[in-house]
Input
Amino acid sequence: MDASEGDAGHKRKTSWKKDPEAVRRDILHIATQEFAAHGLSGANINEIARQTSTSKRMIYYYFGDKEGLYQAVLEGVYATLRAREDDLDVAGLEPVAALRRLIEATFEAHVTAPHFIRLVMIENIHNAEYLRKSEIVPRLNRSIIDKLEDVCARGKAVGLFRAGVDALELHWLTSSFSFYNVSNRATFSTSFGTALYSEARQAALLERLVDMVLASVVIGYEPQSWNAPV
Amino acid sequence: MDASEGDAGHKRKTSWKKDPEAVRRDILHIATQEFAAHGLSGANINEIARQTSTSKRMIYYYFGDKEGLYQAVLEGVYATLRAREDDLDVAGLEPVAALRRLIEATFEAHVTAPHFIRLVMIENIHNAEYLRKSEIVPRLNRSIIDKLEDVCARGKAVGLFRAGVDALELHWLTSSFSFYNVSNRATFSTSFGTALYSEARQAALLERLVDMVLASVVIGYEPQSWNAPV
DNA sequence: TCTTTTATGTACCTTGGGGTTAATTTGTCA
DNA sequence: TGACAAATTAACCCCAAGGTACATAAAAGA
Output
């Protein structure tokens, strides 16, 4: 409909952009990195503006103030991570394989989502004040729990899983080591050395963790990794 | 006026205080709370000064600048936690009981040291930059590893522990859930509810965690908690 | 084609807060 | 007892950074 840019080009239509959505995305993208790197108070609006292809004025135009921008960033990373979780399909796997898969996927997801980890750390420093305000985030979190509950129910139904197994507790446990592995890498390495963070050790660690969780869930499970030397 | 305080006050040398160590401690005490609450960039020197019984000038006199104060605070909380670890004596316990005790103590220590947790979170946001600069912290961290290594060695010597058991990995594992339990409480509760944080659930959780770790370490271990209902 | 709304650029304002200057009091030691 | 160092006070500086005013170009109506 709008004059095809192909013809003649003599019109020189757009000296400007006028692409609100792209501008919004651009700002959010840069802001995500800055807030993840420096925290809420540490991030600098001027610096964010400088790195975008637009101006500081537009940040305030679209997001109101610094906190509004932070909140949008937070919701963005949550949505991204949960979308990845939704893509994971374990309904077709038998319970033990499904649980193993969920644990491994969670571990890997944390390793490959450093922005998310850092923003959650920052949000915890702020006592989840902005997460609580969010209207979209609570809805996002059902998915992973639903999957775990489904797997647990199936595992119990066929007598493979112990009766005391609880999906929420399993998620807590899986999250704990997956999160800590990334979030505290800097201080742990500084205090105790980097031995655990080599690729080989990380892979071995994950195997042991999976075996450990499965042993606590699956009746008569035989862990393979426990006898391997370090 | 202040000097008299009862006893004749014939000495009454001090109309002032002139007690550098007390002033230092006072500043550090308040600063610890402020940095733990708001982070490095979020903390406010004027606010810290206001809460102390001294002035802002003294903060700069004793600690140079904001980063110097932060560094001192960081070293303080590390020293406090490690001192608590030193107090723990498991040399007299047989290996399994000793390991159980170490895990439980670590878990409890994290719960009761929220300032430490928050400052470590903050330090990780800063990529452990200040921890690395510290000259005292690296020395502090041997103690807990030494204890674990001793227990592991004893356990292996009597054929109770698996050969693949590694003290550093055990410490990592124990720290991971102990730390996460406190550090991510705010976001986890917001996302998934507070069910896991009741006193009863926390106690049950710890028992399950201990059993889980022990099962992965001790040959033929029989976990008691796995069959209990949630 | 006139008006209204949306989107954008430039320049500016304000203040919070990290850091400093300079003088004053207390203690110590010849 | 006087000089010198250590500890402390109060007032001040100043600029980085969050936020705003105002003008205006582009789209959308009408």
Observations:
- The domain at 74-227 of chain B is CATH 1.10.357.10 (Tetracycline Repressor; domain 2).
- Residues 13-16, 18, 44-47, 56-57, 60, 65-66 of chain B lie near DNA strand C (CB under 10 Å from a C1').
